[in-house]
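Researcher: We plan to redesign the surface later, but first we want a full-length starting point. Tokens attached.
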């Protein structure tokens, strides 16, 4: 009886060890699958974000692009850009790794003013060059004195309710002159609430996929909306 019991215990121990080995192998495979899945999802999110940066179409895409511009390293803590940095072109990396640059009308104007400032700051120039720089400065910052010339260059801002020069207004996407001056537009962009919830959409989509795989009759995850997931995560 003792001999039979030893053989039985040995067989039970071997079965328990084999079961533990199978569980360990299955768990390691599950961890590896989860790591691979997380990497694939992260790469997919990065590709989707880059595509939305390059080709914004919806309001959420433009909000994402605005947040990306807000987090530019050239900006200081108040959301403003230093004068020298404002003359630099906008740079971003494309999907294939190339560095793209774009000059806006504000960048070109800032570069001209920076060049003018550097010329005016020179002290080791002769009198003729100094006069040339001063004439150039006068042409860049001249003010119309004749009312007949001034009235054709002044427009009313619907934001601050002031009459400003046409240079203080930007242009809309349609090419027409904006009804808000640049300062009011900048303040509106800073004060406007923009929620970028693509991350929470990805979390909710993954939750629904996991719940559906574990239990096909699950309905609670599909009742959750992006706003609810955003509130729970916050």
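Model: Full-length starting sequence:
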């Amino acid at each position: 009886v003792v001999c039979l019991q030893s053989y039985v215990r040995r067989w039970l121990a071997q079965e328990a060890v084999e079961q533990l080995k199978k569980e360990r192998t299955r768990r390691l495979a599950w961890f590896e699958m989860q790591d691979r899945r997380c990497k694939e999802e992260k790469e997919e999110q990065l590709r989707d974000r880059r595509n939305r940066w390059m080709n914004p179409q919806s309001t959420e895409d433009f909000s994402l692009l605005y947040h990306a511009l807000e987090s530019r390293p050239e900006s200081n803590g108040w959301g403003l850009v230093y004068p020298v940095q404002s003359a630099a072109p906008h740079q971003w990396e494309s999907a294939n790794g190339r560095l793209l640059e774009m000059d806006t009308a504000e960048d070109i104007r800032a570069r001209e003013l920076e060049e003018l400032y550097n010329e005016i700051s020179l002290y080791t120039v002769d009198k003729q060059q100094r006069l040339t720089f001063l004439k150039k400065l006068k042409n860049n910052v001249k003010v119309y004195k004749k009312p007949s010339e001034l009235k054709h260059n002044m427009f009313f801002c619907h934001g601050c309710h002031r009459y400003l020069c046409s240079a203080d207004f930007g242009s809309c996407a349609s090419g027409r002159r904006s009804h808000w001056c640049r300062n009011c537009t900048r303040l509106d962009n800073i004060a406007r609430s923009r929620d970028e919830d693509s991350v929470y959409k990805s979390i909710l989509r993954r939750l629904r996929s996991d719940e559906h795989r574990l239990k096909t009759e699950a309905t609670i995850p599909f009742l959750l909306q992006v706003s609810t997931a955003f509130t729970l995560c916050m």
